Amino acid sequence: MARLDDLLDEKDRLRELDGWQIRRALVALKRSLGVFEANSRELQAFLGHDGDARKTRAVLEMIDFSNRQGFGQFLDETDRLLHNFLAAAESLRDHAAAIQRAYLPDVPGDADTDEYWARERVVFNSSLGAFVTELRNHVLHDRIPETDGFAVWSSEPADLKSGIALKTAELLPARNWSKKARRYMSEAGDDILIHEIAADYRELVLDFYEWVDGAIRRRNEHALAELDSREARVGEALKRAWGPPIDDPMGVPNDPGV
């Protein structure tokens, strides 16, 4: 029977495998995606677009056009949540690009390479993607002024919603927008609803990262299979030598695909 020290050394050597590094990268990417989703949900919930009428009523009580201070607080909170959403989107974009370079590098004539760049253009280099990226810089340096926003809602309890619309006429002269971002604003019209931006962009992002996770697994299936096999052998040996293992937070990361 193998000595326990030898088995623990073997367990530590799993970290040297390419599969371990790839799995750790996928776990980290999923964590970044979780941060983005959490900020998206928080923004939508505050603006009353998560189906919770109680939250929406609480927000609407904050909106009082006869009380400029109260409405200013509503805009301040929208500004904060929008900034968090946009910052998380940019961080996720940078994280995905780093993982693509490491674990899904370009291969001429490869279907996954062609598909990655086609999807990347849709998410990040479309008119919506350009607007989201540049809006983050705008919000970072120039908070949403009251003149750029207003509240909207329905008198029907089931349709109770609030919202903030960015005024295209106010945004255009504020920054040196790219052609793509200007095209998005031109197509959006006079009012650009924040909750619609968040919902449309979130849908693109989730689809993109689901595909990226699968593509990295396909490209690196042999390395991940080797990790699974060796991990299973070490786990069985440890169980025989020492009984069922205790969870080790510093051990092989949980597979986000499970």
What's the SSE blueprint?
Elements: H1 4-13, H2 18-46, H3 53-62, H4 68-103, H5 111-124, H6 127-141, E1 165-167, H7 168-171, H8 179-188, E2 191-193, H9 194-219, H10 221-242
Antiparallel strand pairs: 1-2
Helix pairs in contact: 1-10, 2-4, 2-9, 2-10, 4-6, 4-9, 5-9, 6-8
Largest sheet: 2 strands, antiparallel
Poorly predicted spans: none
- Strand tally: 2
Oligomer: single chain
Note the main attributes of this structure.
258 residues; mainly alpha; two-stranded antiparallel sheet; 10 helices
Describe the structure.
With 258 residues, the protein is mainly alpha-helical. The protein has one domain (35-220). It is 68% helix and 2% strand. The protein is built from ten helices and two strands. Strands 1-2 form a two-stranded antiparallel sheet. The longest helix has 36 residues, at 68-103.
Brief sketch in words of this structure:
The protein is mainly α and 258 residues long.
